[in-house]
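Tokens in:
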């Protein structure tokens, strides 16, 4: 990819924390741990909208032998909870694990909210940052934040899935909009750990369809001769109304033995219809570092039957992390080797792809359609 087609378009340096939702309750100083993983869509005026995840963290989380986490309470607003430092594992800069529990129990070093950032039609210039339309916790199941928006336009409505985090549950929530900019919370649509629910941009047989990726702490073994590796898989679900979902009986894309994505795979962008079928971008994770190396791959699903996988292109990544893109942010970096793709928009002879770079900033990449075997003058 030529350098001009790949750039950081939004970073922690672009966020005005004086306008953060947390200012209504947190007096302690905070900073932006990351402004990343942007959902992407095109607005009616032709501009692009990124729904950016802002991970806001305490500047001094440790005091009096405690490490503190930010939490939102429906009655009291934003609070900080102290956990005894000697009883936590804080080796991951994004989370800390609480020891002494019968289950695996985590807390977050930041609380995430979503910031709408409007770009020009070619994603070259920021037109507006809509702080007044920010999406912050609004229900008890969002007490630790709202993460990783994915936006799909189906008919005349925009559907945005997010991951809502709380002690109650780790769930997928749905927001809808009639203009692509103002979103209303519709509630929980998947009541289990699933960070990668992606609604197809169009109905099939009169139904909504979505990719899902349930997580768990236990996976059963495949037969020794199987080509697949046990672990999270990308699955398919359908719905009459985008609220009530029926999982398909068979998995869609599974990690394969010997691939660079053997640690984990998950959906990246909402599938869009092309002449070759439904194009989906997804992430694959290779072990070897604290969080693994994240890369972006792509696949095609049948246009009439998305349960049929036409092609999986996982031998060569579409995108990899590029440290030179965030060199100007090197003092803020805390991870490396991570590109997490979350948005895809048709731009004529190319696609505009939005990703989170190293859990730090928003990266936009322009990829010519022939890279996917598509006619540059078609879809």
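Residues out:
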């Amino acid at each position: 990819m030529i350098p001009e087609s790949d750039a950081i378009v939004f970073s922690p340096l672009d966020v005005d924390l004086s306008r953060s939702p947390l200012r209504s309750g947190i007096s302690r100083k905070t900073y932006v741990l990351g402004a990343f993983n942007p959902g992407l869509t095109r607005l009616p005026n032709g501009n692009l909208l990124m729904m950016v995840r802002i991970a806001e963290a305490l500047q001094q989380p440790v005091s009096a032998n405690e490490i503190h986490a930010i939490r939102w309470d429906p009655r009291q607003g934003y609070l900080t909870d102290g956990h005894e430092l000697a009883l936590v594992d804080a080796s991951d800069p994004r989370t800390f694990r609480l020891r002494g529990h019968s289950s695996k129990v985590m807390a977050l070093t930041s609380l995430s909210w979503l910031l709408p950032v409007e770009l020009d039609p070619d994603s070259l210039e920021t037109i507006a940052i809509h702080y007044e339309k920010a999406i912050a916790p609004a229900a008890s199941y969002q007490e630790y934040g709202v993460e990783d928006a994915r936006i799909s336009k189906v008919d005349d409505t925009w559907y945005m899935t997010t991951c809502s985090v709380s002690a109650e549950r780790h769930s997928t929530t749905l927001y809808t909009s009639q203009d692509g900019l103002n979103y209303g919370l519709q509630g929980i649509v998947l009541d289990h750990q699933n960070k990668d629910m992606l609604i197809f941009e169009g109905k099939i047989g009169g139904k909504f369809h979505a990719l899902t990726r349930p997580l768990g702490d236990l996976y059963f073994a495949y037969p020794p001769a199987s080509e697949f590796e046990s672990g999270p898989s990308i699955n398919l679900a359908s719905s009459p109304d985008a609220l009530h979902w029926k999982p398909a009986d068979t998995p869609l894309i599974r990690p394969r033995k010997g691939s660079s994505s053997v640690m984990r795979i998950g959906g990246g962008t909402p599938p869009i219809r092309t002449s070759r079928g439904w194009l989906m971008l997804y992430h694959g994770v290779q072990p070897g570092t604290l969080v693994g190396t994240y890369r972006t791959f792509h696949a095609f699903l049948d246009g009439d039957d998305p349960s049929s996988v036409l092609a999986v292109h996982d031998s060569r990544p579409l995108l990899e992390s590029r440290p030179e893109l965030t060199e100007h942010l090197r003092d803020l970096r805390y991870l490396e080797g991570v590109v997490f793709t979350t948005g895809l928009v048709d731009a004529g002879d190319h696609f505009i792809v939005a990703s989170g770079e190293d859990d730090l900033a928003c990266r936009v990449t322009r990829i010519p359609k022939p890279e996917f075997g598509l006619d540059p003058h078609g879809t």
